[in-house]
Design brief:
Blueprint lengths: L4 E6 L7 H6 L7 E5 L4 E6 L10 E10 L11 H11 L4 E5 L4 E6 L3 H10 L7
Antiparallel strand pairs: 1-3, 1-4, 2-3, 4-6, 5-6
């Protein structure tokens, strides 16, 4: 996927920022908002990032989208994709939706990741 992403962590009771709510109405941008008992997590394109006082932000991620949709009955798809990165100690962040899995890697690991995935038989497109 084009562009760099940022991963943001806010307190679990923090409101979803207005800029993120606005982004959620656009199909043109990548946005993931997840709330758990431990945190509010927002992943978005760096250029779309708005003010987030009191948050932790880690920028510089690139995103790989696994071609989907993938039936829920298939097992091990994501594991087989990330296994070469895990074996090479490349940190990842994953997001899954109903249809698709996304794997984020830090930009500085992109070249090595690309080599590893191709060597493992994965086809990179886009």
């Amino acid at each position: 996927m084009p562009g760099r992403l940022a991963i943001c962590r806010l307190e679990p009771d923090a409101p979803i920022p207005d800029w993120a709510v606005h982004l959620s109405s656009s199909a043109e941008t990548f946005l993931s908002i997840t709330r758990t008992a431990e945190e509010l997590s927002i992943v978005c394109q760096e250029g779309a990032l708005g003010p987030l006082p009191g948050s932790f932000i880690e920028a510089g991620w690139v995103c790989l989208q696994l071609e989907g949709p993938l039936p829920f009955t298939l097992s091990g798809i994501l594991y087989r994709f990330i296994e070469p990165m895990a074996e090479s100690q490349i940190p990842i962040f994953t997001i899954s939706t109903f249809n698709t899995d996304y794997v984020l890697i830090k930009e500085e690991f992109w070249e090595r990741t690309s080599e590893l995935l191709q060597a493992a038989g994965h086809e990179l497109t886009g």
